[in-house]
Amino acid sequence: MVDVGGVRLAYQVSGPPDAPPLVLLHAMGENAADWATVGPTLARSRRVYALDLRGHGRSDWPGDYSLELMQADVLRFLNALGLDSVDLIGHSMGGIVAYLLAQDCPQRVSRLVLEDVPIPPPRKRTTPTRPDGTLAFDWEMVLAVRRQIDVPDPRWLQRLSRINAKTLVLGGGPNSHVSQDGVAELARCIPGARAATIPVGHLIHHAAPEAFGEAVSAFLEERLRPAHRS
Q1: What are the residues whose beta carbons fall under 8 Å from the beta carbon of 64, sequence distance 6 or more?
Q2: Domain-wise residue ranges, the chain
Q3: What's this model's pTM, rounded to 2 decimal places?
Q4: 19 alpha-carbon distance from chain centroid
Q5: What is the tens place of the pLDDT at every residue in 6-38?
Q6: Among 25, 163, 174, 230, which residue's Cβ finds the most Cβ atoms within 10 Å?
């Protein structure tokens, strides 16, 4: 646990202590354990920090929620642990938090991987139905974040051009409920972003952990290879 300005965030850490840091941000309703299928692969060459975002899992459920507050929490997490520049992977909602951080603090993100994250077009506002039983996340968080996703801040789109992290945008293909046109458009809006598809649906790192791990590891390792000299 780490205090990030009055909110405690839980996280899991793995990998060599002296390896480059990699931060993982989960989707809505998930938590750090969601990365268990690919965590060991990523931790071979990275010091991996998998967070529970506010309102999720073992982190605090403060009742005050927005994607910008989650972004601020992640930045304070980096500061608290002395992580100056990190590689960052975000899935779905976590991908929005990740690109907001990369927009506003470009010097803090070296490499960015966005897993099945679409560009944020306005859509008809809906009210989700609460699942039965005990939840591992705060339902008030779902309502607050869904309102933002339904009517996104136009500055999110405008600031995508400010991202200077090397970026990989992964789409889940036609079986994903997320618009793949929106995923492709997101890649076009980020300068120099690379796009790839692993056609297994929205939960890429669950449905195809080997393919996800190989694609992401290859992308992250590129900067560690010495430049070719003729």
Answers
A1: none
A2: 2-224
A3: 0.95
A4: 20
A5: 999 999 999 999 999 999 999 999 999 999 999
A6: 25
